[in-house]
Amino acid sequence: MPVSEDADRTALLRYVERFALVLRASGIAPMPARVFAFALADDADRYTAGDLAAGLQVSAAAISGAVRQLVQWGLLAREREPGTRSDLYVLDDHNLWTRFVGAELDTLERLEETVAAGMEIIGVDRPGGRRLAETRDFFAFLRQELADAVSRWPAERDRLAAARSSSTRARPAGRSG
Amino acid sequence: MPVSEDADRTALLRYVERFALVLRASGIAPMPARVFAFALADDADRYTAGDLAAGLQVSAAAISGAVRQLVQWGLLAREREPGTRSDLYVLDDHNLWTRFVGAELDTLERLEETVAAGMEIIGVDRPGGRRLAETRDFFAFLRQELADAVSRWPAERDRLAAARSSSTRARPAGRSG
DNA sequence: CACGTATTTCACACATTTCTGAAGTGATTT
DNA sequence: AAATCACTTCAGAAATGTGTGAAATACGTG
Q1: Burial classification of residue A4, based on how many CB atoms lie within 10 Å of its CB (0-12 exposed, 13-18 middle, 19 or more buried)
Q2: Cβ of A81 under 8 Å from any chain B Cβ?
Q3: Are A108 and A77 found together in one domain?
Q4: Does A116 contact chain B (CB < 8 Å)?
Q5: Contact B22/A111 with Cβ under 8 angstroms?
Q6: What span, in angstroms and rounded, lies between the C-alpha atoms of A139 and B149?
Q7: What is the tens place of the pLDDT at every residue in A56-66?
Q8: Footprint of strand D on the protein (CB under 7 A)
Q9: Are residues B27 and B76 in the same domain?
Q10: pLDDT tens digit string along A19-76?
């Protein structure tokens, strides 16, 4: 048992709030940001809604709303162990970062569509319309690049793990979740 | 002169609001989003604060705050024509998309720092800490990939322009703004 | 089928954000 | 040097967002 369980919990909570604050800067709502940060940083693999509420010291209602968002975004998966009556929430480990960027990709796609619609409304034969056309091209380019980058991540991850295990100790690369 | 100047303005304003709404989903505040969308979609190359206020039908104060943000982000440049007393705001054309993604890169960097700090606080020898380590690696990777992608854009833009001008008419590629 | 638990929904209080009008600041022109 | 114009700052009203407690619902067990 740690020197002080309470101190650890407090430090964790403070850190979760700090992490959540950065997440919120990207447009994520406070409570989903907190739940995500908590689920990532705390040690459990699965959390019941009760765990999350107790861990974050917030109401069950707040958790309900937050996990709904996170599950919708694919960052959290809802599971159910037979013989229990509470849902379990799990970070969708392997696909986690694909999902995370997936949200960005969706935004980029909506942006692209909106700009394309603007070209129709404004007309491409005018300065504004021409700027919109270039904007759309850029978003399309960026979206493709981002998608490619994400698809390269698993290989890169393995490469990093291999490099580390050989430079520190000869130990097979381990998965984190 | 268009059939109806008013109808065009209304359509533009409606579109600006729609565009701004998508921008806001990425965490940009309403008024900066509107000013950016307006400056991009309307036909002028430069706008005075008065132009923006009149065009968007909002107060001068609102413009003041919005352009401050946009200038800080580097999306808008402030200029001053000698012999006039009003500032001119210009979309920082050539670097525009570099800047746009630059904001994302900054967020990614803050995220990376925050996660790295978390590894210290939590300890990398625990499940939560190990997840944070992988998270940091991913953000570092993504940041690099994104920076690379942006640096490839100018060449890609020219390639697109060249392909288009040869497939439609034999005309030198034109710049949009 | 009734009970007990987990989860969701809802109305409300609280906090934050957003934009405006008015006052204040700085600079150029007359 | 006074007046005028552009811009910024500030306080406050309105709108929006956030999280809680309580009631309602769903679900699995005995």
Answers
A1: exposed
A2: no
A3: no
A4: no
A5: yes
A6: 12
A7: 999 999 999 99
A8: A 29-31, 34, 57-62, 65, 80, 83-85; B 48-50, 60-61, 63-65, 67-68, 85-87
A9: yes
A10: 999 999 888 999 999 999 999 999 999 999 999 999 999 999 999 999 999 999 999 9
The rounded distance, in Å, linking the Cα atoms of A93 and A79 is: 13
Q: What digits encode the pLDDT tens for the residues B5-57?
A: 677 888 999 999 999 999 998 889 999 999 999 999 999 999 999 999 999 99
Contact at CB, B157 and A135, closer than 8 angstroms:
no
Contact B135, A40 (CB under 8 A): yes
Same domain assignment for residues A162 and A129: yes
Domain encompassing residue B151: 95-167
Using the 3D structure, point to which of A91, A117, A132 is the last residue of a domain: A91
Instruction: Please check whether residues A116 and A58 belong to one and the same domain.
Output: no
Question: Which residue type occupies A55?
Answer: G
- Residues B116-133 have pLDDT tens digits of 999 999 999 999 999 999
Nearest residue to nucleotide C9, by CA–C1' distance, is A61
**Count of domains forming chain B:** 2
